[in-house]
Amino acid sequence: MMTFRPAGARPFAVSVETSDLDEAREICGEHLYPRTLRVVKQQARLSARFAFLHLGELTLADVRYGAEMAGDCGELGSYHVNLPLAGTFAASHGGRPIDGNTSRAGVYRPVGANVLHRSSADCHLLALKVKTTVLEDKLAALLDTPVRGHLQLAAHLDLRRSPGRGYAQLIRLIGAEIDNPTGLIYQPIVAAPLEESLLIALLYAVGHQYQDLLNHPQSRSPRRRIKRAIDAIHDEPQRPYTIAALAQIADVSQGFLRREFHREVGLPPMEYLRNVRVARAHAELRGADPVETSVVEIARRWGFTRPDRFTQRYVARYGVTPDDTLHDAFGG
Fold it and tell me: Is CB count within 10 Å lower at the N or C end of the chain?
């Protein structure tokens, strides 16, 4: 086993050659996922060669078994891409068939049992393991909106045309440098942008439920997002809204909501909500019977627990007290 770990740098690589099946299981379990492995043809001899590049929160593995293989590794707990450089493989993941060859890569989600039905003896692939939260956080940053739940990545990536072809070229470029101890991928100043490029390119290359938002920024314009929160406030101003609840309705981060809401209407979200509630209280006061209700009751119904604060806000907006409005509506 050969390990290349530059001093003081995060990226490092491990290379292994083995004909021992147990050692192959152990090394793959340590650097990728725990798994079962078996040689399909009993008379065949394992001639495995592995190289694992640990690049921040990603692992890129160069994998060759030199024999027909099968096995399983349960749930991966990570996003994963298998990009064949030669040969073929046939697998299933969570009941979805996933196969790969030099024309298409297989793509895996974090949840769902993974079974390798067969990889050909000449199968040589680059396997990319991506930490779940890292990919989801990167997407959230690109969209500037929360990502809820795992990405429903498509099972395959077409390597014959863009964007799959470009993504494959990027993976191959990095994979070719794993065994080069003087390569630029081992320099942190280069490794960090490469890691980010692999994440971003994967999000653009593989189909998922957020792809339309990612590819068409106009569909996630600030005005359209903020309008969702504004409409919710006007439709149900009596609801106990919080910044977090409004951000969830708009499908944006809380910081984004505060910033864009103020830019759109000139007020913070909760201040805008209080103004809408004052207007609803005003309408109710004008139609209420002072014998049957009071200013305090109406104020509390619209979320104002302190009558003095409600009165101050009301006078600032309407120039009269709420009590005046209540009694004037019935002729004083």
Answer: C
Cite the DSSP H helix spans in the chain.
21-31, 132-143, 164-175, 188-205, 211-215, 222-235, 243-250, 254-265, 269-287, 295-301, 307-318, 322-328
Q: State how far the alpha carbon of 295 is from the alpha carbons of 31, 292, 313, 314, 317, in Å.
A: 68, 11, 13, 11, 16
Q: Give the closest residue to 2 by CA, choosing from 188, 184, 179.
A: 179
**Six token digits for residue 247:** 């951000």
Q: Is 49:124 a contact under the CB 8 Å cutoff?
A: no
Asked if 36 and 64 count as a contact pair (C-beta separation under 8 A), the reply is no
Q: Which two tokens stand for residue 310?
A: 């409600």
Please state, in angstroms and rounded to a whole number, the distance separating the CA atoms of residues 304 and 308: 9
The Cα–Cα gap between 254 and 76 comes to 32
DSSP 244-278: HHHHHHHTS-HHHHHHHHHHHHSS-HHHHHHHHHH
The tens digit of pLDDT for each residue in 272-325 reads 999 999 999 999 999 888 888 899 999 988 988 888 989 999 999 999 999 999
Structure token pair of residue 257: 């909501």
Residue identified by tokens 């909500």 is 273
Q: Is 259 exposed, middle or buried (0-12, 13-18, 19+ CB in 10 A)?
A: middle
What distance lies between CA 23 and its chain's CA centroid? Answer: 35
Residues pairing with 51 in the sheet = 15, 62
- Residue 112, Cβ neighbours under 10 Å: how many? 16
Q: Is the pTM of this model over 0.90?
A: no
- Please give the Cα distance from 210 to 201 (Å, whole number): 14
SS3 call for 101: strand
Q: What are phi and psi of 29, to 5 degrees?
A: -65, -35
- Enclosing H/E stretch for 99: strand 96-100
Residues 6+ apart with CB under 8 A from 221: none
